[in-house]
Amino acid sequence: MPAPLTLVENSPELPASADVVVIGAGIVGVFTAYYLAKRGLKVVLLEKGRVGAEQSSRNWGWCRQQNRDARELPMATKSLELWDQFAAETGENTGFRRCGLFYLSNREEELAGWARWRDFARGVGVTTHMLDGAQASERGKATGRSWKGGVFSPTDGIADPANAAPAVARALMKLGGCLRQNCAARGIETEGGKLSAIVTEEGTIRTRIAILSGGAWASSFCRQLGVRFPQASIRSSILSVSAGDGELPDALHTAYVSVTRRGDGGHTLAISGRGRVDPTPQNMRFGAQFLPMFIRRWRALSLGGFEGFRSGHENLSRWRLDRPTPMERMRILDPAVDRGTIQLTYDRAVELLPAIASRRITASWAGYIDSTPDGVPGIGEIATIPGFVLAAGFSGHGFGIGPGAGHLIADIVTGAAPIVDAKPYHPDRFLQSAWGKVADF
């Protein structure tokens, strides 16, 4: 595991039945299970590998409203409240704090875009401050250079990817929920056309409701059930540096490089949007649907290699429920790092923030960001399989909005008033083209 991650102990055994089974223990899965358990339901959380071991521990850790697409902004706002609330009601430490997020730019076009978003945000009660050149340069004095402007979102913050999902999993178990790691869900059983059980490598769990929060594996799992879920993965590479001398910002974004303080005092370094597209059978299958997304973002993407084939999460194979699946052969997606991107990221970071030069590189890693054609997650019950709820395709935004997504899914399952409008997320929209609908940020 190149990305730091706190380990969580398993519950002792797999129960024979449950009110709800959640498949996938990333940040969305653990929060979903937690909110369901809070409502008194008997919950089983299944994870083929370790809690939070894939993209939930490999991201920047940003929990932001700033520059969110209008469809995701309500969930982002609610999530910030829930991050705070979770810590207060459980005593578990996710590393969340509202340090504010800081953006700098010397490009008039970029600054104008942020100003337009600021004007939109005012209408929905979100506070963000545009900074003129003097203000931006003063707040960004660690860079040692002048800036045309920037933006500061004071109520946004960061959480610790190494600890967040494990903390929520521990809280789930305190409520009586069951966590089984290294236990893949292989498929489902139905009765009368409705979901009736989840088949795992350890046995079968009788249940009427299952949530698939399987991240980059979700489309392959859906295909086994005859459900078409368009999904594509981008391989993103980032690195971390140790704590050291010199004051660095908690969370800073520029077009060149972004830096985020980690829970250990070090920083994560990344280039926003940069990644590789590894050709896979699944990418080819859904290529036409992703054309609008590619046209919008092609400048930041480049062709990858055979990592997608090696990982096995985007093949078109069918698997049997009584045999090991690709998920059991690849417990944790841990793709090869793009060394060129790592070097470029580090070089840019040192140029932007000279204090980084004195710090030690502690780790580098890659992860698969699972995307939908419009860059907005798919959340909702699948009409052809009553009781089966999809929660995937978070497109690199899942960590920050994980609490809100988990709460919304719990609302859907229990029939409660939804914390936010669920319609923009329903998977039925993937039956239509994404032209003109790709997320702005």
Automatic annotation (TrEMBL):
Q: Which domain of life is it from?
A: Bacteria
Write down what this protein is called.
Answer: FAD-binding oxidoreductase
Keywords, sorted A to Z: Membrane, Oxidoreductase, Transmembrane, Transmembrane helix
A GO CC term attached to the entry: cytoplasm
Which PANTHER family does the entry mention?
Answer: D-AMINO ACID DEHYDROGENASE, SARCOSINE DEHYDROGENASE-RELATED
Could you state a single Gene Ontology molecular function term?
D-amino-acid dehydrogenase activity
* Family (UniProt): Belongs to the DadA oxidoreductase family.
Q: What are the TM regions of this chain, as residue ranges? A: 20-37
Residue ranges of every copy of the FAD dependent oxidoreductase domain listed in the record: 19-411
- GO biological process: what's one of them? D-alanine catabolic process
**What's one Pfam family the UniProt record gives for this protein?**
DAO
